[in-house]
Amino acid sequence: MKNSLQDLLIYIPLSQLTYITSLPKELVHYETILDNIPGQLLERPTLIILKNYDEWKKLNETEITIRLIQDPNLIGMVLCHPDPIIIQEEVFTHFLECQLPIIQVPDHSLIHVFQQTNEFLYPYSQLSIELQGFMEKGFISLASELSKGLNTPLLYFDQNEQILWQTGEKEELQEANRWFNIHRRKLKNGEYSNLNTDVEGSFQVYTIQISEFMNHSLLASAQLLSWQKRMVDKLVGLTALSLQTQGIFEEQQEIFKEHFIYDLLFHKFESKKVMIKQGKTWGWNLEKPHHLLILNIELSDEFMTNMNWLEEIILFLEAEAATMKETIIVFPFQDQIILLLEDAEERINSERKNYVVETISHIEKSLSSKWSNIRFKIGIGKWYQDTINLNKSYQEAKLALQFGQSWFENNKNIFHINNLGIFRLLIHIQHELLYDFSLEYLSTLIEGDRENGTEYIKTLQAYIQHQGKISEVSETLYVHPNTLRNRLKKIEDITGLQLQDINDLLILTIAVGIYSFVHT
């Protein structure tokens, strides 16, 4: 009897499946199994299961790959290895183009599933294994993998029909969101009671029943075949089981929130509507423009013993914002605190900058008064009319904070991206290129500082910061003005650049600024 590759996958835990390529919708059947790469064309429909490292490594040989994808009797491959399998891009492209299903299964003991010759029941004892794997990897990881394997978008909605998470191609996601909005009322009224049957349009809703009074929803393509629907059903069932414990439900919500925050700060949302909807889940109004600020906290040893320090500071910030009657969104991210200060007023650029700096200065003073043994430093990104650009503002705030701490004087705690001038361009250039440029002009000075303690770089930085005013520079460096002049002359001799020449000074300014930035 022929076995269907897709039908057998339901018997393998979701957490054990990695789809290197998507699976074809139509069932593919095989009659025999091979555990090595054949040296000639196959005679019957065959599934290749590679358990040996040396065997699946052969897949990166183009000649072998081309022979395999041209073989009409090769229906798919299963690679059995616990570590991530690396396939060269060119080879991977060949497999994608010919739509050959390739699956990775890390556990050798699961290979027996593909060797079945008769229909067999799903072992209920496997349910605990499924649930444990779900808990370890999490919904987002398993759903992302399943979306790739089934080639369908997946969208997760909470009990208020707010989107929490989605994955898929841009066009598919846009179409899915439109469909959901059109059918929202019918879905809410329960008119699609049997949600595993076809409904109007191109998408289908699967109910995730958490309790008698609370349901979440998973949206997928309505064009899935029965074997694909069974896979989605399994994901839905595991999700419901895991969320039926309140603690786990809250933890899952936090994971969704963390995922949203990461996308907000590092990616540009394809749809502003989706971003706004997801923000509303946590009470954030992202329809209006915001300033983005990063609060860096330099903890004292004494304060580090307090395990709840981050929560305490966030609560203080929220209370302080309320007293100031400012709308501020506050959340932790990577041991720092992000603040989104709402600012939808009509202002010219200088007024807008003054507003955010004055507001955060007041907050910084309150923080320092409350915790006098902690140093608070703040980076501020550019204000954008459209909140979909908050990811750009985050990168600018990071640059302002990183560069500001290394470049400006120690008594300065607030750094706005607009204060960086030409150094704002650093964010768009690879660090390696920046460093190479810096070393081209400063390498000899750096070497002298390291070997002889000459402080050439420190001198140049002070000279640039104080706009070449000898009295101020000498006072900052605690050296006699004549000593400073001699040191500056030595710098000119070493670099071959003249500090009084505007072009040479610009080169040194950029080089020293880059060196300070890269070394923070």
Alpha-beta classification: alpha/beta
Q: Averaged pLDDT, please? A: 85
Q: List low-pLDDT spans.
A: 193-199
The major sheet is characterized as: 5 strands, mixed
First and last CA, distance: 66 Å
Bulk shape? globular
Rg to the nearest angstrom? Answer: 30 Å
Q: List how many beta strands DSSP finds.
A: 16
Short description:
With 520 residues, the protein is an alpha/beta fold. The chain is built from 19 helices and 16 strands.
Task: Provide a descriptive summary of the structure in words.
It is a single chain. Helix 3 packs parallel to helix 4 and helix 6 runs antiparallel to helix 8. The protein is built from 19 helices and 16 strands. A five-stranded mixed sheet has the order 2-7-6-5-4. 29% of the residues are buried. About 1% of the residues have low confidence. It is of the alpha/beta class and 520 residues long.
Q: Mind sketching the topology for me?
A:
Blueprint: E1 3-4, H1 5-8, E2 18-19, E3 29-30, E4 32-34, E5 46-50, H2 53-57, H3 62-69, E6 74-79, H4 89-98, E7 102-104, H5 126-137, H6 139-150, E8 154-157, E9 163-167, H7 170-188, E10 203-209, E11 215-221, H8 226-243, H9 246-266, H10 272-281, E12 290-298, H11 301-304, H12 309-324, E13 328-333, E14 336-342, H13 349-370, E15 375-380, H14 390-407, E16 414-416, H15 431-452, H16 456-465, H17 470-477, H18 481-495, H19 502-518
Parallel strand pairs: 4-5, 5-6, 6-7, 15-16
Antiparallel strand pairs: 1-3, 2-7, 8-9, 8-11, 10-11, 12-14, 12-15, 13-14
